[in-house]
Design a protein that fits this description.
Blueprint (H helix, E strand, L loop, with lengths): L11 E3 L7 E3 L5 H6 L16 E3 L9 H18 L2 E5 L3 E3 L9 E2 L4 E5 L4 E4 L7 E4 L2 E6 L2 E4 L26 E7 L2 E6 L2 E4 L12 E7 L7 E2 L2 E7 L4 E6 L1 E2 L2 E11 L13 E6 L7 E16 L11 E4 L1 E11 L6 E4 L1 E12 L11 E4 L7 E2 L2 E8 L9 E4 L1 E2 L2 E8 L9 E4 L6 E8 L3 E3 L3 E2 L7 E7 L3 E3 L2 E2 L7 E6 L17 H4 L3 E10 L6 E5 L4 E11 L5 E10 L5 E5 L4 E3 L6 E6 L4 E7 L3 E11 L4 E4 L1
Parallel strand pairs: 3-4, 4-7, 5-8, 6-9, 7-10, 8-11, 9-12, 10-13, 11-14, 12-15, 13-17, 14-17, 15-18, 16-19, 17-20, 18-21, 20-22, 21-23, 22-24, 23-25, 24-26, 25-27, 26-28, 26-29, 27-30, 28-31, 29-32, 30-33, 32-34, 33-36, 34-37, 35-38, 36-39, 37-40, 40-50
Antiparallel strand pairs: 1-2, 41-49, 42-48, 43-44, 43-49, 44-45, 44-46, 47-48
C-alpha cells in the first residue's frame, strides 16, 4: 500500500465519501523525522500510513442502531481502500449486539485508533461486539470496553459466535473482541470494566475481554496478542486456543467476579490469561506472558472450590512466563499439558487469610496425561497469610522439571505451604527455601502415588522448624536433603514424625510402646517386627514415666528380606533431663526384627517406636 501524501500545516482533510465533514490536521512531521534520520517512505510509520476514516463522518449516532451502522460503514470503507485507520473521537458509543449479524466485522489491514477516554458500551450475551474472522493485520488501540449488562442464566450453545460451540461452564458468554482464524490481531492500550467502574455481582455475566480462536478447521494462528491493557471485571481476561507466537504483556488487573448462585456459578474459575485446546487437541506454541500485575480483589465472595489462578497455561509447547505478580487468593499458576516452558521471577502474595482457592501453583493431566514436562521454574515466591490452608505447590504428572522457589507460611497443619508431587511425578528436582513463621511441622517435600526419582533440596530459613519427610508406599527412589540455615546440620529439631496424621497422609506406620520396671543392673531389650521389606524412617525413644528424662534418636532402617540390613542414626541422639538412659542401640535382623537395647536408672520407662515406610526413598543432610 502506497504511503499517504504528507499533510501540511492547516490543510483540511475529509473522510472518504463524506465531503461535508472535515478535520483540521496539524502534522508537520516529515521534516522532523527526516532530520532525525528516519525515512518515512521506506519504513511504515503507524498512524501516518494509509487513509484515515473518522467514524463521526459515517452516521448520526442517534441510537444504538445508528452507532453500529456508522462503525460498520467505516470498516467497509477501510476494506474498500485495501486498508487504513478508523479514527474514533472521544465519546461514549453504545451498542446493541443481539446476534452475529450485529457483530462489527473488522477488515484486514485495519487500525481502529480511539482517542483516550473513548468508551464502547454494550451488554448482551452471545455474539461478540467486534470480530475478525479469517483476517490479518488488525490493531485495536485505546478504547475502554464497558459492560452494562445484567446477570442472566443462558445455556451455552452454537447459536452466535459464528458457528463455534464456545461456552464457559456450559453457559453463554460475551466477548469484547473475538479473533477467529485470524493472524496479527492485537489489542493495545485498552481497558475492560463494568459501567461506571462500580461492579456488582448482579451486573456480571461471562465476560471475556479478548478471545483468540483457531479457524473452524483447527488451523493455528500466529502473531496475535494483548499489550498494555487494564483488565477488570471479566471472567477471562484473555482466552486463547491453538495460537502461535502469542504475546500477553504489560497487563494490570484489579478485580474479578466472585461466586453467583445461578448459571452453575457465574464467576467460577476464570483467569486473567487462559490458554486451552479445542475439540482437536493441539498445543499453542511460543507463548510469551510478561510483566503482569494481578491485584486479584474479588467483588463478592469466593468459596474453597475456586481454582481461578491468575495464569492458566494449558497445552503450551515452548513459552516464557516472567514477571507475574499476583495477589489473587485463588492461586498464581495452573498447568496442564505444558511442555518446554520457562517460568521465572514471579510471586503470589496473599495479604489476608481466605477460604477460597487451591494450591498456589497446580498442575493437572487432562490434555494428554502429562501435566508438565521439561520445564523450569526459577525465582518463584509464594507467601501465604496465617492459617490459609493450601499447599504452595501441588502438581500431577510433572516430569523432568526443575523448580526453585521460596515459601513463607504460618502453620496449623502440615498441608499449609507444602510442596507436593502427586500422581506419577518423575525425575524432577525441587529446591525450596522455606520460612515457617510459627513453631510447627512443615512438609516441604512430599511424593505420592507412584512418584519416583524426585529430588528435594530444602533450606530451612530460621529456627522454628520440624520437618516431616513423606513418601507414600509405591513411591521409589525419591531423595530429600534438608539443611537448617541456623543449626547447619541434622538435629532432633530437623525431623518430626507423629502417628496421629499417618493414616490420613498415606503412611504405612507402626508404633509400639511398652512400660518396663528396670533394675539398676538390667539392660532391657525389646523387639519390633517390620511388616515388610523396604526403607523405614522414624524415632525410637526411651522415656521416664514422668516425661522428665529421656533419650531418643532418628533412624533409617533398611531391610531387604535377607539380602541387606542396616541401621543408621541420622544426626545425634537427644537427651532430656539430668538422668537420661546412657545407652540406646538398634539392630535389624535378616528376618526384619528390630532389636532395641537400652539402659536406664531404677524407674518406670516407656520405649516408644514411631516409624514410616518410605519404599526406597531416602532423606539425608547436605
Amino acid at each position: 500500500m502506497a504511503p499517504l501524501p504528507w499533510i501540511t500545516r492547516g490543510e483540511r482533510v475529509v473522510a472518504k465519501d463524506s465531503p461535508l465533514f472535515a478535520d483540521v490536521a496539524n502534522r508537520p512531521l516529515r521534516a522532523l523525522l527526516t532530520e532525525s534520520g528516519y525515512d518515512p517512505d521506506a519504513s511504515p510509520f503507524p498512524g501516518l500510513m494509509g487513509p484515515v476514516f473518522n467514524v463521526k463522518a459515517f452516521g448520526t449516532f442517534a441510537d444504538t442502531a445508528a452507532t453500529r451502522a456508522a462503525f460498520a460503514t467505516a470498516f467497509a470503507a477501510v476494506a474498500a481502500a485495501g486498508g487504513g485507520t478508523v479514527w474514533v473521537p472521544r465519546a461514549t458509543y453504545t451498542f446493541n449486539i443481539a446476534s452475529d449479524s450485529d457483530t462489527l466485522l473488522l477488515p484486514s489491514n485495519c487500525d481502529m485508533l480511539c482517542e483516550p477516554g473513548t468508551i464502547l458500551r454494550w451488554g448482551q450475551l452471545g455474539s461478540p461486539l467486534f470480530a475478525a474472522v479469517n483476517k490479518e493485520n488488525i490493531n485495536i488501540v485505546g478504547p475502554i470496553f464497558e459492560w452494562n449488562g445484567t446477570l442472566v442464566d443462558v445455556a451455552g450453545g452454537t447459536a452466535g459466535r459464528f458457528g463455534q460451540s464456545m461456552n464457559i461452564n456450559n453457559r453463554d458468554y460475551c466477548c469484547h473482541v473475538l479473533s477467529l482464524g485470524s493472524n496479527n490481531v492485537r489489542i493495545v492500550r485498552s481497558t475492560s470494566r463494568t459501567q461506571g467502574d462500580a461492579p456488582t455481582l448482579a451486573t456480571q455475566a461471562f465476560v471475556i475481554f479478548g478471545g483468540f480462536y483457531p479457524s473452524t478447521d483447527g488451523t493455528s494462528n500466529t502473531g496475535n496478542g494483548m499489550e498494555d491493557c487494564k483488565i477488570d471485571d471479566v471472567i477471562q481476561g484473555c482466552l486463547t486456543i491453538n495460537q502461535h507466537n502469542f504475546r500477553f504483556e504489560n497487563i494490570a488487573s484489579r478485580r474479578f467476579p466472585g461466586d453467583n448462585p445461578i448459571g452453575g456459578g457465574v464467576g467460577t474459575n476464570g483467569h486473567l490469561f487462559y490458554n486451552s485446546w479445542s475439540a482437536t487437541p493441539q498445543r499453542s506454541q511460543n507463548i510469551t506472558i510478561r510483566d503482569i500485575t494481578d491485584f486479584g480483589v474479588p467483588f463478592g465472595t469466593i468459596d474453597a472450590s475456586r481454582a481461578d489462578t491468575s495464569i492458566q497455561a494449558k497445552a503450551i509447547d515452548g513459552g516464557i512466563i516472567t514477571g507475574v505478580l499476583s495477589r489473587r487468593p485463588t492461586g498464581l499458576f495452573s498447568f496442564d499439558g505444558t511442555i518446554n516452558c520457562r517460568i521465572t521471577n514471579s510471586a503470589l502474595i496473599i495479604p489476608t487469610a481466605t477460604v477460597g482457592g487451591q494450591a498456589g501453583i497446580s498442575c493437572s493431566t487432562s490434555f494428554d496425561g502429562v501435566g508438565m514436562a521439561d520445564c523450569t521454574m526459577e525465582g518463584i515466591t509464594v507467601i501465604l497469610p496465617d492459617n490459609t490452608d493450601r499447599p504452595a505447590l501441588s502438581v500431577n504428572g510433572m516430569q523432568r522439571c526443575q523448580i526453585s522457589m521460596y515459601v513463607s507460611a504460618s502453620h496449623t497443619t502440615e498441608s499449609i505451604g507444602s510442596v507436593t508431587l502427586n500422581n506419577s511425578c518423575i525425575d524432577n528436582i525441587v529446591r525450596v527455601d522455606y520460612l515457617a513463621r510459627t513453631i510447627n511441622s512443615v512438609q516441604p517435600g512430599k511424593a505420592t502415588t507412584t512418584s519416583h526419582r524426585n529430588q528435594f533440596y530444602v533450606n530451612l530459613v530460621g529456627q522454628n522448624h520440624k520437618v516431616r519427610p513423606f513418601a507414600e508406599d509405591g513411591c521409589l527412589d525419591n531423595v530429600m536433603q534438608v539443611r537448617d540455615n541456623v543449626i547447619g546440620k541434622w538435629t532432633e529439631k530437623s525431623w518430626w514424625v507423629t502417628e496421629a496424621n499417618s493414616p490420613a497422609m498415606g503412611y504405612e506406620s507402626i508404633k509400639k510402646s511398652k512400660v518396663y520396671r528396670i533394675g539398676t543392673s538390667t539392660n532391657p531389650t525389646t523387639t519390633l517386627q517390620l511388616p515388610r521389606a523396604g526403607v523405614w524412617v522414624g524415632t525410637v525413644q526411651i522415656i521416664e514415666a514422668s516425661g522428665a528424662h529421656l533419650r531418643g534418636g532418628f533412624y533409617r532402617i533398611v531391610w531387604d528380606a535377607g539380602a541387606l540390613q542396616s541401621v543408621e542414626l541420622l544426626g545425634t541422639q537427644w537427651t532430656v533431663g539430668a538422668s537420661p538412659p546412657s545407652v540406646l542401640n538398634l539392630a535389624v535382623s535378616a528376618a526384619g526384627v528390630v532389636t532395641v537395647t537400652t539402659t536406664a536408672p531404677n524407674a518406670a520407662w516407656d520405649i516408644v517406636y514411631d516409624f514410616q515406610s518410605l519404599g526406597n526413598n531416602r532423606y539425608a543432610d547436605y
